[in-house]
Amino acid sequence: MLKKIKLIEHLALISPIMLIFCFLFDVNAEDGKWVKKGNMPTAKLSPSCVVNGKIYLVGGMSDSPNPLSTLEEYDPATDKWTKKADMPTPRGMLSVSVVNGKIYAIGGVSPSTTPATEEYDPITDKWTKKADMPTPRSFLSACAINGKIYAIGGINESLKTLSTVEEYDPVTNKWTKKANMLTPRAFFSAIAVNNKIYCFGGFAKVGPMANGRDKEEVYLSSVEEYDPMTNKWIRKADMPTGRAGLSTSVINGIVYAIGGQTASGEKFFLTERPISLSTVEKYDPKIDRWTKASKMPTARYAIATEAINGKIYVFGGSEDTIKPSSKVEEFTPEQ
Question: What average pLDDT does the chain have?
């Protein structure tokens, strides 16, 4: 009997230690399940957004050199696609945001860098021209908080990487300059969580090399948080995997950073092929901490992702530098 009591006491001591060990070392770090869904009507690299439970893919780039004006609506409940009214300005490498049920398409390449801002109403299936963004740019990312849209980073016509932040008010149709990001970046992902904006990865710089033709592109793992209330940026914990062309979505306050591209040595020249990633890493803004999740079945970059009803949908992108993908994959994180 005495031995049994001693054993129970011993186990009682071990249990808390094991819990601490599991927390610190992420014993069960990977989670989630992936399912293939119906292909997109158009294989492309295109940004996305959600309105009333439907996902919209706006413009983008296909295997043609010309930017697209197509707008396609996806219903996750039926796994069906519907063609919608074309965007007035065909463009790729733009960003989109939603305010009060309306979609705002901002910037991009058309085929030169454009400041165009256009509003789409899903109810009327109509587009309206809005005030141009002050800084023409592509490869930017935009987020909406409290009825305002923040257009962040990107590259300009001369391929300079930007730290520029401009705020758009759909009510007044006016743009306002805000505090720059700490790190100029392009081809990154920004997302709003708890009234803060988080920017993940991207290219650190794009500039002429010694021969005047090739461009150097350095991949970032850095993360920055922006508070629109104070107009200030702060540095947060780095992503485990430095990458560009990733996409992020939020479920239950946790950010899932999905896919992207990288290269050996953390840099490459445009004459070489980048490495597509299937990496999925999740970030908890409350504790500033990263863990792993189950890898995406198809490694790709320049993807679009959206979260609906506890699931994340991944659209398009490219598995290499030549051909866009039409694949759609659904991810359900383990709860």
Answer: 87
| Terminal C-alpha separation, the chain | 40
Q: Are residues 169 and 227 in the same domain?
A: yes
Report CA torsion sign: 86, 91, 96, 99: negative
Are 7 and 52 in the same domain? no
d(C-alpha 101, C-alpha 98), whole Å = 6
Strand partners, 318: 301, 324
pLDDT category at 213 given cuts 50, 70, 90 is very low
Both tokens of 139, joined, read 């490869």
Q: State residue 4 phi and psi, 5-degree precision.
A: -65, -40
CB 82 within 8 A of CB 60: no
The encoded tokens of residue 292 equal 């792993």
Q: Which helix (H) or strand (E) holds 3?
A: helix 2-25
The count of C-alpha atoms lying within 13 angstroms of the C-alpha of 95, restricted to the half-sphere facing its C-beta, is 27
Domain residues for the domain of 230 are: 35-332
Q: What is the pLDDT of residues 24-81, one digit of tens each?
A: 333 334 578 999 999 999 999 999 999 999 999 999 999 888 899 999 999 999 999 9
Contact present, 130 and 115 (Cβ < 8 Å) = no
- The answer to whether the CB of 60 falls within 8 A of the CB of 89 is no
| CA 303/CA 25 separation, integer angstroms | 30
What Cα–Cα distance (Å) separates residue 21 from each residue in 14, 15, 240? 10, 10, 20
User: What confidence category does residue 323 fall into, taking pLDDT thresholds of 50, 70 and 90?
Assistant: confident
| Same domain (yes/no): 6, 121 | no
Cis peptide before 136 (omega within 30 of 0): no
User: Are 1 and 148 in the same domain?
Assistant: no
